[in-house]
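During the no-cost extension, the postdoctoral fellow (Dr. R.K.) reprocessed legacy sequence entries with the updated structure-token encoder. One reprocessed record is reproduced below for audit purposes.
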Amino acid sequence: DKEISLVFIKGPGEAAEKIGSYLHEQHVEATFFVAGEEAHEHEAVLEKLVEEGHRIGTGGFSFTALKSSEDPVLELKAVDAIISPFAHGNQFWLYGEADSVDKKTLAALRKAGLGKYVGPIHADTNGPHFEIDEKCWEDNQSVSHCVENYFDEIVRMGKGIVPFHTEDERSYELIHDLIPELTAYGFHFKRLDEIPDLRLALTTGGGTADATETAEACNDYE
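Re-encoded structure tokens follow.
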């Protein structure tokens, strides 16, 4: 299908604003999954990202599996209070591995009024040779090597969700060089709320797909 969704996790880091602006120039809207502490310290960055059409989600306060949290409800509520003002049309996205939220945790979240979160969303980059950008920089790989690494994996996937980080300036360089290559190859960039299965889950949970501006958050806690 050649349709991919870009997500940025664990930030917003130092390169988030620059990445968001470049994507906006390229008419690409992404989702930035933020950690609670970082989000609280960089609310101005979140505001700009939203103004540029990007979506804001979270992976919890510390980006560890919610099922392992001492109090997953308290953790998600703490982040929810920070990011709710930046939600497009009551779109609430949760990032995590497929098994990061078990049935017990999910039931507790729903009972606490947090069933509005769609997820856990996770990446489709599971090729045997793929290295995420964070690993590229840890291994002192060049930006061009990481671009090739991402390009090959995305072509292998054909479609899906592709993860990046925003802590390192090289991730901006990666995005800057990768987007034109993918566009030239015929790939199209979709928001999460444009993916059919996620769109259905979003609207079922009370969110509004295709929202163009933020809406008052539905904080229906007990």
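The domain at 3-125+160-166+187-204 is CATH 3.20.20.370 (TIM Barrel). The CA atoms of residues 31 and 56 lie 6 Å apart. The remaining legacy entries will be reprocessed before the final report is submitted.
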